[in-house]
Amino acid sequence: MKKKNLMVYMVFMVFVSVVAVISGFSQEDITTVQDSAFDIREIMRPSVPFLHDEHNEKAQIEECNVCHHTYNEGKKVEDESSEGMECSACHLTEKNDDPIELVRVYHLQCKGCHEQKNAGPVMCGECHVK
Ligand code: HEC
Ligand code: HEC
Ligand code: HEC
Ligand code: HEC
Q1: Transport: is it a keyword of this entry (predicted)?
Q2: Which is the most buried residue in 29, 69, 88, 102, by most CB within 10 A?
């Protein structure tokens, strides 16, 4: 009888920890773009509202690596992605530590697609809303 209770308890605890992992912070919880690279600096502009999953659904973006890309010898790798890594992990390095460069690639990716698709915000104040 005691053994059985222990089993039930253990199964329950495994269940609890699985739920905790699954419901942990993920892209669904993202409401703004807040690259930690900008944390250490004076934030000059309010962080950009970005409801990750909702945005990508509305914009009908199927592939994660449209944004979370990886490159090999200057070429984008089609079937790989880098989600879970911040953009700054690659775009702000010891070799290239200019934050302007990081800002440039964010703008290029976000605004670039909006301009191309003629949808989504392109003005400063539309993304950096107060
Ligand atoms: C339109 C661009 C875009 C697309 C498409 C996209 N993401 Fe993201 N994602 C971002 C941005 C921007 C961030 C936040 C900035 C960062 O962490 O570098 C982010 C953050 C994340 C994070 C990190 C959450 C955390 O804890 O910091 C995960 C995980 C993630 N995305 C997964 C995905 C998956 C899975 C897909 C495909 C189903 C996807 N993303 C598609 C732009 C995108
Ligand atoms: C695993 C590393 C890695 C991650 C993570 C990554 N990138 Fe990149 N990205 C690269 C490499 C490598 C290149 C191509 C070489 C270059 O131009 O720096 C590139 C190129 C780009 C370009 C084209 C640059 C140009 O001058 O044409 C943009 C825009 C860009 N990345 C934006 C982003 C954004 C925004 C994120 C986060 C959502 C991101 N990248 C995440 C490695 C990465
Ligand atoms: C591959 C294309 C693409 C990329 C990359 C992209 N967007 Fe968008 N975005 C769209 C489209 C398309 C819309 C319009 C969706 C609609 O309402 O029909 C949009 C709409 C938006 C909106 C309006 C509100 C909303 O959620 O619909 C915001 C804010 C926004 N994008 C922010 C961003 C930010 C910040 C980034 C970069 C981290 C980004 N987008 C990258 C395609 C893109
Ligand atoms: C499509 C959305 C979009 C538009 C339009 C846009 N930005 Fe950004 N900008 C971003 C994102 C995303 C980041 C990265 C923010 C972060 O991680 O906190 C950023 C970062 C910045 C930063 C550095 C970080 C900070 O908070 O100070 C500056 C400065 C900036 N943008 C200025 C501008 C100016 C000026 C304009 C108009 C010419 C502009 N942006 C238009 C999306 C946009």
Answers
A1: yes
A2: 102
On the 0-12 / 13-18 / 19+ scale of CB atoms within 10 A, 39 is exposed
Q: Which of 106, 108, 83 lies closest to 35 in space, CA to CA?
A: 106
Which residues constitute the domain of residue 66? 26-127
pTM assigned to the model = 0.89
Residues with CB under 6 A from ligand 2: 67-71, 82, 85, 87, 89-91, 105-106, 108-109
Per-residue pLDDT tens for 80-124? Answer: 999 999 999 999 887 778 888 999 999 999 999 999 999 999 999
Ligand 2: which residue has its CA nearest to atom 11?
71
Residue range 45-90, pLDDT digits in tens = 888 999 999 999 999 999 999 999 999 999 999 999 999 999 999 9
Structure tokens at 113: 């697609």
Ligand 1 in reach of 27 Cβ (< 6 A): yes
